[in-house]
Amino acid sequence: MEILGLLVPIFAIIVTGIVFAHFKILPDGTADVLIQFAFWVAIPALLFSILAEESMKRLLDPGFYVSFGGAVAILFAIGFFYLRHWRHKSLGDATMLSVMGVFSNTAFVALPVLHSVFGHKAVLPAAIATVILIVVILVTTVLLERAQSTESGSSAGSGVLSGVRHALLNPVILSTLLGVAYAATGWSLPAVAKQYLSLLGAAVTPCALFAIGLSIKVEDIGKDLSAIVGVSLVKLIVLPVLVLLLAFLVDLTPIMTISAVVCAAVPVGKTTFVLATKYQQHPARVAAIISASSAASVITLLLWLLILAHMYPGTLSK
């Protein structure tokens, strides 16, 4: 019962957002405003304030990179090969379906959930996962640029450079890199700065999770069911299982193992929709998969956390 007392309020925030969206209680565009606030203000404040005081030993621990990053790379490669060479999908289609199977919404779901349940100690793995996934997005951008240039006969170089620049200016990535750089100095944050960042960072959990619930479009979920079910199963079940297996192999610590699995078990990130729209790769289908995985994760992520709590008793507390 103790674990449910920790987890139910978190998922209740998402459900509250879904209810508010269904009854149209708030104006259109509210979810976008909340997401922008979390993306540009609250999440960067939380990441920088925590990472700035982390030890370099924890920051450079290879176990998390191997378990989470390795699972993402393996599953992306398998999915891409299967779709491209067995299902004979186009380069663009194979790329989008593959990336949706591994690209997690770490900033808006994993980070607030982990921070709410574990506190500051779980912020680091969520930040590392976000950086790993930015690399995945860069690889995806290269492949989509290749697909587009093949169809149009144009050069792919400018689009790739634009993608790299956009990734480096991403406030979540920028705050992570700045936090790591500050940690390397060995300095402590001034008390006033720490309090300021803490107040802003406290908004992450309610703001991000409510916005996620508010942005779930139930009416989209009935479109292209085979792709929705397939990608959602890979994303919410297969990827976390693979992460857990690799975590066992590298003897990852309990808190890092749980964090890695949670980062893998959250729904598909919205960046995939941005890419699908930009490169004209079935954006309606991508939106449906994001909504379906977000709705399903309310149940599957809760189940994963209950399983992990049973495997690592006593860890699900701050």
Q: Would you spell out the secondary-structure blueprint of this structure?
A:
Blueprint: H1 2-22, H2 30-51, H3 56-59, H4 62-86, H5 91-100, H6 106-118, H7 123-152, H8 157-168, H9 171-185, H10 191-201, H11 204-215, H12 225-249, H13 254-265, H14 271-278, H15 283-311
Helix pairs in contact: 1-11, 1-15, 2-9, 2-10, 2-11, 4-5, 4-7, 4-12, 4-13, 5-7, 6-7, 6-11, 6-13, 7-8, 12-13, 12-15, 13-15, 14-15
Which tags fit this structure?
single chain; 318 residues; mainly alpha; Na+/H+ antiporter like fold; globular
Describe the structure.
InterPro entries: Mem_transp_PIN-like, Na+/solute_symporter_sf. Belongs to the auxin efflux carrier (TC 2.A.69) family. Pfam families: Mem_trans. The chain crosses the membrane at residues 6-26, 33-52, 64-83, 95-118, 124-144, 164-184, 196-216, 228-249, 255-276, 288-312. Its main location: membrane. α2 (30-51) packs parallel to α9, α12 packs antiparallel against α13 and α13 runs antiparallel to α15 (283-311). This protein starts with a helix and ends in a 7-residue tail after the last helix. The model has no long low-confidence stretch (mean pLDDT 90). The chain is mostly helical and 318 residues long. The protein has helices at 2-22, 30-51, 56-59, 62-86, 91-100, 106-118, 123-152, 157-168, 171-185, 191-201, 204-215, 225-249, 254-265, 271-278, 283-311. The longest helix has 30 residues, at 123-152. The protein has a single domain (2-311), classed as Up-down Bundle (Na+/H+ antiporter like fold), CATH 1.20.1530. It is globular, with a radius of gyration of 19 Å. The chain is built from 15 helices and no strands.
